[in-house]
Amino acid sequence: MIIYGRKTVQSTIKSGKFDCPNCRRQESYQLKNYQLYFHIFFIPLLKIKELGDELNCFFCNSTYVPGSVLSSHEYDTRNRLGNTSQEENSTIGLVPCDFGKRIGAFVIDLALLYAFNFILIYYIQSGLGFIPLIGFAYFMLCDFLLKGSSVGKLALSIKTVDYNEGKNVLPFYTILRNLIKGLCVFFPFIYLASLLNQDKRALHDLAAQTMVVDK
Ligand SMILES: [Zn+2]
């Protein structure tokens, strides 16, 4: 079994009818998108590269560059994903960020905390103490000072916003969000919830009515 490595992730963006140049008649097509991911076990974590889209004729199985057989109305690269939830979110003009980026940001922040802790222990023989508690304080401070960001989030150009309006998260929800996020240390699956919905919201996002987006 391959534990980690690169993996092509395929998703069907849409399907419909088109004039297949090979069949010379109207046939059904499937428009697929391919992305190269770094994966651990079976979980695609970090997007490495966008491999592009491909259109397949359902009947003859020929593949085409989508723009060559679909009109710009049917295939718009700017709004290519065309799924309703993302269209809805475009009312707040924001795109949910990748699962891998979130984990990446979280790992950077944790690494920072641990490094800081290590330096303290080295120089003054005393650490920060209970890391989850320090983590909570750290994320709270970041959320308030950096407005929904953290060092890790800044590094990967993502931030937390209010789900309904795309604005900064209210203090009450920031506290609620971080309390639930703190549980991640003990129950990492909280993050996995973001793999289950289109807006990629984890449990703490759902509770605090937030979403993590690309800047
Ligand atoms: Zn065909």
Automatic annotation (TrEMBL):
Membrane-spanning segments: 179-196
Pfam families for the chain: RDD, Zn_ribbon_15
Residue span(s) of domain Zinc-ribbon: 20-65
UniProt keyword list: Membrane, Transmembrane, Transmembrane helix
Residues of the RDD domain: 98-208
Broad class of the protein's primary localization: membrane
InterPro entries on file: RDD (IPR010432), Zinc_ribbon_15 (IPR031493)
Subcellular location per the Swiss-Prot or TrEMBL entry: Membrane
Membrane topology: Multi-pass membrane protein
Name of the protein: RDD family protein
Species this chain originates from: Flavobacterium quisquiliarum
Native organism taxonomy: Bacteria, Pseudomonadati, Bacteroidota, Flavobacteriia, Flavobacteriales
